[in-house]
Amino acid sequence: MKFHKKKKKKTMYLLYKIVFLLILSTSSAKSQDPLGEFCNKNTNISIGGKLSTNIDKLLAELALKTPSTFFIATSYGDNKDKVYGLAQCRGDINTQDCSNCIQNATKQIRQRCPNQADARIWYDYCFLRYSNKSFIGEVDTSFGIFYFNVENVTDSQVFNKKLGNLMDQIRGEGVMAKNKGLGKGKSVLSPFVTLYALVQCTRDLDEISCAQCLAIAVNNFQTFCNNRKGCRVLYSSCYVRYELYPFFFPLDSAKTKPSNIGKVIVYP
Ligand SMILES: *[C@@H]1O[C@H](CO)[C@@H](O)[C@H](O)[C@H]1NC(C)=O
Ligand SMILES: *[C@@H]1O[C@H](CO)[C@@H](O)[C@H](O)[C@H]1NC(C)=O
Ligand SMILES: *[C@@H]1O[C@H](CO)[C@@H](O)[C@H](O)[C@H]1NC(C)=O
Ligand SMILES: *[C@@H]1O[C@H](CO)[C@@H](O)[C@H](O)[C@H]1NC(C)=O
Fold it and tell me: How far apart are CA 111 and CA 108, in angstroms?
């Protein structure tokens, strides 16, 4: 009883924080466009200042070094001009795609957040973030972006059961150190329909923190992804996605095409 009440309150709190919602069709979004960015407007800095110069140096290092390891958490500079950075590619993609994605991210983040010391950018294949405040190893689900298929499943009971089972399985994989934050898998729903899902934590997180981020993401499915044919949750510490078509590598041959996608941004 108490649990129920608490949950309802939390949902209302979340809804209160939604700033805008827009519906966009997949055809209008080019593959090189980021899925979203966050420029922390409370961390304005002057362009050309020391902190800004350090951000450029940090980004050059991230662009250079990320593709070989798929993950970097580092810092640049000293004292009050020190900046921390993290870049990561999704574990299932190839080195070339990782390299392209990080290159694009380093350019786009400076265009989109030119005078902020705390900025983040999301793509399907990679995530990049920097801040003058240390964040490495900390779970952050304060800012979230949700993408969802506007179509709903027909048999929600069976679907949600299968989705829940698949999510449990891949979350278990994702938190294991040897999997570097990645869990992915599929579940056959019928001879014609297969469910695909993937989770990815940033690799600076320990097992418990990764599990925490994934649990928050999956809990929010109820609010933003309920009965949807596909959904994506983008946080600064983890990425969770499921679809009724193949989207992770190695890629299955596609049976269904994605349709109209909606987007919700949840601010802290
Ligand atoms: C990066 O940009 C290039 C060209 O501008 C584009 O072809 C490529 O698809 C982009 N990659 C990603 C991962 O967005
Ligand atoms: C930071 O700069 C943006 C413009 O880039 C402005 O809209 C915003 O109000 C500024 N924030 C603060 C706290 O001054
Ligand atoms: C980060 O930079 C902002 C803007 O210059 C400043 O207000 C804030 O105190 C800095 N934070 C830290 C931890 O240095
Ligand atoms: C899917 O369900 C939601 C919530 O119940 C509803 O608002 C929406 O219109 C439905 N979408 C379609 C395409 O029927």
Answer: 5
Q: What domain range includes position 217?
A: 144-266
Q: Read off the pLDDT of residues 90-134 as tens digits, 9 standing for 90 and up.
A: 999 999 999 999 999 999 999 999 999 999 999 999 999 999 999
Cα separation, 199 vs 175, in Å, equals 10
Mutation test residue for ligand 3: of 51, 76, 133, the one with most atoms within 8 Å of CB: 133
Domain end marker among 97, 131, 165: 131
Q: Where are the beta strands (DSSP E) in 91-217?
A: 119-122, 126-131, 144-149, 182-190, 193-201
Q: Mutation test of ligand 4: which of 21, 152, 228 has the most ligand atoms closer than 8 Å to its C-beta?
A: 152
For atom 12 of ligand 4, the residue with the nearest CA is: 151
How much is the pLDDT for 195?
Answer: 96
- Residue-level pLDDT at 106: 98
Give the residue from 201, 228, 198 showing the smallest Cα distance to 212: 201
Read off the amino acid at residue 141.
T
Token match 């994934």: residue?
A: 214
136: Cα separation from own chain's centroid: 16
- Residue-wise pLDDT for 101-110, tens only, equals 999 999 999 9
Q: Which atom of ligand 2 is nearest to the CA of 114?
A: 5
Q: Are 140 and 235 in contact (CB under 8 A)?
A: yes
d(C-alpha 104, C-alpha 95), whole Å: 14
Check if 21 has its Cβ closer than 6 Å to any atom of ligand 4.
no
Q: Which atom from ligand 2 is nearest to the alpha carbon of 44?
A: 1
| Cα gap 62→56, rounded to integer Å | 10
Entry pTM: 0.89
249 in a structural domain? yes
Regarding whether 66 and 120 lie in a shared domain, the answer is: yes
205 and 255 in a single domain? The answer is: yes
